[in-house]
Automatic annotation (TrEMBL):
Residues 4-131 form the VOC domain. Pfam families: Glyoxalase_4. The lineage of its organism: Bacteria, Pseudomonadati, Pseudomonadota, Alphaproteobacteria, Hyphomicrobiales. InterPro entries: Glyas_Bleomycin-R_OHBP_Dase, VOC_core. It comes from Notoacmeibacter marinus. It comes from the Bacteria. This is Glyoxalase. Gene3D superfamilies: 2,3-Dihydroxybiphenyl 1,2-Dioxygenase, domain 1.
Length: 144
């Protein structure tokens, strides 16, 4: 099982302001790859930036996403750090073996990824996702 840093998610009430800031001040570029966001699962504004290696996802705060999806962890309440894996089944087993609870979002936000979320020991939200078989997302530079 491989695991690598994929993106950092920052949540705001003003995604456009954040996009301008991270683009103008830090030089992050808008993502050219299409990451289709499901409007029935997550309908707040979202933007995708990158430094060429790691992505930054800017998401509108959605305090009700956990309630609507039936999950205990809400990844767009405060934001999260995300890792991609090539074997989500093995990673879920690792969490279970260590007694770490997680919320399985499946494809709530996008059909392209299967996402799970859990907390680190101090309460930060962590995402681990795998590209879904049904997902049409093109691999990024980290997929080698």
């Amino acid at each position: 099982m491989k695991l690598w840093l994929h993106h950092i998610n920052v949540v705001s009430h003003n995604v456009e302001e954040l996009q301008d800031f991270y683009g103008d001040v830090l030089g992050l570029q808008r993502q050219t790859e299409d990451i289709p966001v499901r409007s029935d699962g997550y309908s707040a504004p979202v933007a995708f930036l990158s430094d060429g290696a790691v992505q930054m996802h800017l998401a509108g705060r959605d305090l009700d996403l956990g309630f609507r999806s039936g999950n205990a962890i809400n990844p767009v309440e405060r934001g999260h750090i995300a890792f991609r894996t090539d074997d989500l089944v093995a990673f879920r087993k690792l969490l279970e073996d260590k007694g770490i609870s997680y919320s399985d979002y499946g494809g709530v936000a996008t059909d392209s990824w299967h996402q799970i979320f859990f907390h680190d020991p101090v309460g930060n939200v962590i995402e681990v996702h795998e590209i879904s078989d049904s997902g049409a997302e093109a691999p990024d530079a980290n997929d080698e």
